[in-house]
Amino acid sequence: MVDDATPSRAFLTDSLAHEGYDVIDAVDGSAAIALIAADSADLVITNTLLPGIDGIEVCRRIRQDLGKNDLPVIVMTARDERLAHIKDLRVDDFVTKPIDLSELCVRVRRLLQVKAQAEQRESQTRALTTQLEGATHALLDAERLAFLGVTAGSIGHELGNVLAVLMSAGTGIETAVAAGEPVDIEEVRDLMAAIEHVREHTRSLVMIGRPARAREDTYDLAELLRETVRMLERAGRLRDVALEMRLPETETLLVHTNRVRIEQVVLNLVSNAADALAMSGKSKSLRKLQVQLAKVDDRARVSVIDNGHGIAAANIKQIFEPYFTTKPIGKGTGLGLPVCRKILNVYDSDLLVSSVEGQGARFWFDLPLVPIL
Ligand SMILES: Nc1ncnc2c1ncn2[C@@H]1O[C@H](COP(=O)(O)OP(=O)(O)OP(=O)(O)O)[C@@H](O)[C@H]1O
Ligand SMILES: [Mg+2]
């Protein structure tokens, strides 16, 4: 309450105190500014005419010097002063003299209510912002963890496949050496091929995070299919199936990709087909696995077809999700197909599937052909 006239100030102060307000009074503008600067006001009522700086100047300093734009200010004016001041938007309200106490009380209550509501909205906004930031961080953490999980799992999965080949070749060599028999050169070659595979995979790991394409070669896709199937045969993965390779007889289909990655795709697809056949309950001679290579327009199409247990319609979308597996615990990690799809996407290709449950499955992908000069 800023007023230099002692009787009216005392009357208003007492009356407002009686209404339950905590009232501090100031006898001039400078004293008022000092009190407000010390943060001890929720609302200011000021006379217009004051010794030294006037009420309108008090209001200006509250806004400009103290930066308190939300502090409500009521100015008490004589009736004829009112129009001149009302243009000053920094004043929140006016009461004209002689002061009607109930009118003043209504205005004070309303302004304090508006201020409280604004503060509440602001604190709600702050709380929501904090909540949102927290949720965003949690989401980013979850994504990072999921990415780490997928990456770690995929490494394990990949190493597991190659280790099976290494174990088999190593055991073959060990057995031959122990028996004093000549070592099968093919087994040594398998061993070296698997080592090369791991080496290339290690390079890919180093590249993770950078979407750079791995070193690319031009090669004969039929040859890659033959070699990959031979690796699996030597690892004993195709022992119980009737395998048929349908490769072009005369035409050479050249493609240009990182070779090991496509090997990885074929390895996964043929392993899956072999598993589906093993679990189909069919006798060995009826378990058909076909690996096809054909030219379709200007692309080479690789298909892996089996007549195993097939895929339930409800599962067909999920099989490409990381960790989706229908295999017993310890058998499948559910990373084979998502890894295949990721690899093919690098070469603007995709992995496609069609299946009828109980009858079998067909997986295929295309790669652009390199023209033979
Ligand atoms: N040829 C297929 N026939 C029937 N179901 C298949 C075939 N290939 C994949 N699936 C289904 O898709 C699922 C996911 O395959 P994916 O290769 O991603 O993982 P996985 O083989 O279960 O495990 P991992 O490859 O990590 O050892 C399999 O568990 C299986 O249910
Ligand atoms: Mg698999």
Question: Could you please describe the fold and organization of this structure?
Answer:
By secondary structure, this protein is α/β, with parallel strands linked by helices. Among the domains are: 6-99, 3-Layer(aba) Sandwich (Rossmann fold), CATH 3.40.50; 214-368, Heat Shock Protein 90, CATH 3.30.565.10. Helices cover 49% and strands 15% of the residues. The protein has a five-stranded mixed sheet, covered by helices on one side. The chain has a three-stranded parallel sheet with strand order 1-2-3, with helices on both faces. Strands 4-6 form a two-stranded antiparallel sheet. The radius of gyration is 41 Å and the shape is rod-shaped. Bound molecules: adenosine-5'-triphosphate and magnesium ion (MG). Magnesium ion (MG) binds next to α8. Magnesium ion is lined by residues 268, 271-272, 332, 336.
Quickly describe the structure:
The chain has helices at 6-18, 29-37, 55-64, 82-86, 101-178, 185-207, 221-234, 259-278, 336-346, and strands spanning 44-47, 73-77, 93-96, 217-220, 242-246, 254-257, 288-296, 299-306, 352-356, 360-368. It is of the alpha/beta class and 373 residues long. The protein has a five-stranded mixed beta sheet with strand order 5-7-8-10-9, with helices on one face. Strands 1-2-3 form a three-stranded parallel beta sheet, sandwiched between helices.
Q: What percent of residues are in strands?
A: 15-25%
- Low-confidence segments, ≥5 residues, pLDDT <50? none
CATH classification class of the domain at 214-368: Alpha Beta
Oligomer: single chain
Number of strands: 10
- What is the CATH topology of the domain at 214-368? Heat Shock Protein 90
Head-to-tail CA distance between termini: 96 Å
Shape: rod-shaped
Q: What ions, cofactors and ligands are bound?
A: adenosine-5'-triphosphate, magnesium ion
Helix/strand structural class:
alpha/beta
In CATH terms, what is the architecture of the domain at 214-368?
2-Layer Sandwich
Radius of gyration: 41 Å
| Major pleated sheet | 5 strands, mixed
- Helix fraction bin: 40-55%
